[in-house]
Each structure stands twice: as C-alpha cells, then as structure tokens.
Amino acid sequence: MNKIAVLTESSYTTLVGDIRRLIDDGKERASRAASYELVRTYWEVGRRIADEKLTDNAGYNAAILKDLSEELGIDYGTLTRSLKFYQTYEVAPRGKNINWSHYKLLIPLSNPKERQWYESLVEEKSMTRQGLVEAMRNDAFEQQSKSKGKPVKPSKLKRPTEATYVYKAKVDRVIDGDSVPRKAAYEMRDGPSESTCRGRLQSALSGNGQNLLS
Asked: Which domain holds residue 119?
C-alpha cells in the first residue's frame, strides 16, 4: 500500500511558487514567440510585395496596394509599412524585448546608426513602445552623440531687435520758472560771468584771511 505524502506548509508554498513560475515563464515564451511570428509575418508580406517589383512605378504600386488593402481587409498603411520593413532589414529581425509596435517607429528612420542605437536601447532597458516614443521625442540619439564629444554646430546669435538697457533719471528738485529772479535766470541760461566767479571765490576765501586772486 502506497503511503500518502503529506505536504507541510513550507512544501506547499514551494510547490505553488514553482508552478506559478513555470506558467509565467511559459506565457512569456509564448508571448515572445507570438511577437516574433508577427514581426516575421509582416516582413514576409513585405518581401512578397517586393517580389512583384511594383515599386518601379509609384502610381501603379499605390493602386495595387489599395486594392490589396480592400481585398484582404488590411490597413493600407500596414502594407506600405511591411514593404518598407522588408527593404530596411535583410532578414526578419528577432529581438528579445522588441516587437512590431517598436519597429513601426523605427522603420521611418533613414539613419541606420540611429535606428540600431534605438534598437539596442529598447533591448537594454526592456523599453515599452511609449518609452521609445519619449526617447525619440527627446532626441536621445543626438544627445548621446553630443556627450561623446562629437562636434556640435554652433548656434547663431540672434541680433536683438529691442533695447536691452534702460536709462533711469532722478529728479532732485523742480524750480518754477516764474519764481526765479531775472538775473539768476540769465545765469542759468548763459552761465555766470568770469568777474562774478572771481568775486564769489574771493568772498569764500576771505573768511580764512586769504585772497589768492588779488
């Protein structure tokens, strides 16, 4: 007669954790496999369209793709993107953390180095689509290029169109012109005469017993 094993609380907890981990790992592998299959499918669609060499005639190519879109119930943009995807990658790319939603953002990039840099960024940081959107919006590739000491074009100085300074005037005293004596008014206008200046100076010095101008 077989003995019935009795699980301790600790053993049961371990069992639950192991099964949960197996299920989660399986879902992740399935998700990655499904993600890659979707990427490969769009690449194959682009390859099949390219086989017809429809790109030699842009107008004809667009007309055919529109017909295919209606016939297959697939968005026209998806078909054109699939063609561009095939033309961009020699083989269907397979990344661990990168999926079709990422590639839709990367396909329009004309600079291969920039595109590869963003691909590595997504893989390294397990970046979501929205994270990639923000990185591209903030020109992350350009910023890291500048930080590596690559020459940066100097920005042009903008010529000012308005005054950048302000004069400040201080009024110490206001004199009513009607209350100024006529003689003082002439002095204010023409300045005091030389004899007047000499007389004032002598008066100022006479208090000290000195007359330097005699």
From this structure: 98-151
